[in-house]
Write a structure and sequence with these properties.
7-stranded parallel sheet, 8 helices, alpha/beta, globular, two-stranded antiparallel ribbon
């Protein structure tokens, strides 16, 4: 469990490099928390609006996720009102924009209980992740000892040279590797249907669930881990 403090309330998904998998991580977190009985809010600060497009596709009979289109600007209301989070919603998951300037990190990460940095297995992504971590420590003044930063290795293919290089890099950091997500078509299915991994049929999601259970535990999710949906699409819990 994250820091032994129970459920985190504000989760920032952050990597200034585009294409690192921030939206995949943010949307699946939101769906998984919703399925586990929480009332998550998903704030999309990326001008591309990918998280909000995912939410519009979400089936009406699935567990609710409250959406906040933070990339939109309105002259009719104040910015603080536009970004308000209903009092009954927790946790708040924030999908941050690409090309985020390092000087914006202190404001972006203020009040964050957890900062998740997704990293793809390529030399460019590894270099970008190293700079991102350094900026979080030096500019945003996030202390390693706080235990708030976690790395998620994304779209990893087993035993390829670039994946091995990524894992060596991650082990060299004094930042915990929370989960390693496979390069799986399940994430494409989730993106196209407005669902999360826990909402896919059990037989389809089985290979990916263990990594997500590790991540959800780190974030303090207190419900028993899910084993995906059964053959009829109904989500089933399995006691631990």
């Amino acid at each position: 469990m994250f820091g032994g403090k129970g459920l985190v309330k504000r989760i920032i998904v952050l990597n200034p490099k585009g294409g690192s998998g921030k939206t995949t991580l943010a949307t699946n977190l939101a769906a998984n928390f919703a399925v586990e009985g929480y009332h998550p809010a998903l704030m999309d600060l990326d001008p591309q609006g990918s998280s909000m497009r995912w939410l519009k596709k979400r089936p009406k009979d699935h567990a609710a996720v409250h959406g906040i289109a933070g990339f939109e600007r309105s002259v009719a209301v104040t910015r603080s009102w536009q970004l308000r989070v209903p009092s009954n919603c927790a946790p708040l998951i924030i999908d941050t924009p690409a090309a985020l300037d390092s000087q914006e990190l202190p404001e972006m990460t203020r009040g964050a209980d957890a900062i998740l940095v997704p990293v793809m297995p390529s030399d460019i992504d590894i270099h970008a992740a190293a700079k991102c971590i350094a900026d979080l420590l030096l500019i945003a003044k996030i202390r390693r000892t706080d235990g708030r930063i976690g790395i998620v290795a994304n779209r990893v293919r087993g035993n390829t040279l670039v994946s091995q290089s990524l894992m060596r890099f991650l082990r060299s950091l004094d930042i915990p590797l929370i989960a390693t997500l496979r390069d799986s078509q399940n994430y494409v299915r989730c993106a196209e249907s407005g669902r999360g991994l826990y909402e896919l049929p059990k037989w389809q999601a089985r290979q990916d669930l263990d990594a997500w259970q590790d991540l959800m535990r780190w974030l303090g999710a207190s419900q028993p881990p899910l084993r995906g949906a059964d053959q009829n699409g109904l989500v089933t819990h399995t006691p631990i």
